[in-house]
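User: tokens in, sequence out, please.
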């Protein structure tokens, strides 16, 4: 699977590089539609690669926001696992300790002795 990922990544890199080499002519980008003097000239490949990068970052941010609930549940589960592991280790340490018992006086009426 990793080998396939490398092949696809290499092919994508070759295509992007060829695109950048072919499209070097500048284009004008206007920032203010009312004032035509506020413009910047950039090569076509810079605009396209910048748009791709911006879209990737924006998409990653949206995915990160949507996964917040899952991350919160995992943190809660990890804390609960730590508490349970600590409890299990404490129980394993005290496994052979006999809990103290209350001495019951023997009487002729055992049902009444348990009340006192």
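Assistant: Sequence out:
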């Amino acid at each position: 699977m990793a080998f396939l990922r490398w092949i696809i990544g290499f092919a994508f890199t070759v295509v992007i590089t060829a695109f950048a080499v072919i499209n070097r002519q500048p284009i004008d980008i206007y920032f203010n539609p009312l004032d035509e003097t506020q413009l910047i000239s950039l090569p076509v490949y810079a605009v396209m690669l910048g748009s791709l990068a911006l879209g990737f970052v924006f998409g990653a941010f949206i995915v990160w926001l949507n996964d917040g609930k899952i991350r919160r549940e995992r943190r809660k589960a990890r804390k609960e696992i730590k508490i349970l592991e600590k409890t299990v280790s404490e129980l394993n340490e005290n496994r052979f300790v006999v809990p103290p018992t209350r001495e019951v006086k023997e009487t002729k009426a055992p049902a009444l002795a348990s009340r006192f």
